[in-house]
Amino acid sequence: MFELIIVGSGPAGMSAAVYAARKQLNTLLVSSDTGGQVNLTNGVENYLGYQFIGGDELISKFQQQVDQFPIEQKIGQTVIQVKKIDDGFEVVCESGDKFQGKVIILASGKRPRKLNVEGETQLTGRGITYCS
Fold it and tell me: pLDDT of 82-127, one tens digit each?
């Protein structure tokens, strides 16, 4: 039984993990990927402290900070269900793995809404862009 389970490993989830670790909470970070929508971003120009930083570089810096703390990470696990149980919550993953926690933070993020126009997939990043 974890004190805290964070679902999602984008900027919000990773930030929550760092704050939880600083409060010495027994924390699990579970996510299908690391970085979330920022992984789809070539460059970030509005993140305080950086005039420009690549999305992958920014997520790498976030990951380095998370890795400084004893946070259990289950990356590559897709959460398909969160259930209320007597002592808290149970997180069920696509793999069949189940984790229990007293508290859950859902930081599962979002994905851009596709336009469904001809050539959208081929032109993404070459004229068609999404803002994370």
Answer: 999 999 999 999 999 999 999 999 999 887 788 889 999 898 878 8
- How many whole angstroms separate alpha carbon 79 and alpha carbon 98? 9
Token pair in block for residue 26: 């027994």
Positions of E strands within the chain: 2-7, 27-31, 43-44, 53-54, 72-75, 79-85, 88-93, 98-106
Q: How far is it, in rounded angstroms, from Cα 3 to Cα 18?
A: 14
The whole-number pLDDT of residue 59 equals 94
Nearest Cα to Cα of residue 28 among 90, 96, 110: 90
Confirm if 29 and 72 have CB atoms less than 8 A apart: yes
Residue 24 C-alpha from the chain's centroid: 20
Give the pLDDT confidence score for residue 86 in this predicted structure. 95
Write the Ramachandran bin of 35: left for phi over 0, alpha for psi from -120 to 50, otherwise beta. Answer: left
pTM: 0.86
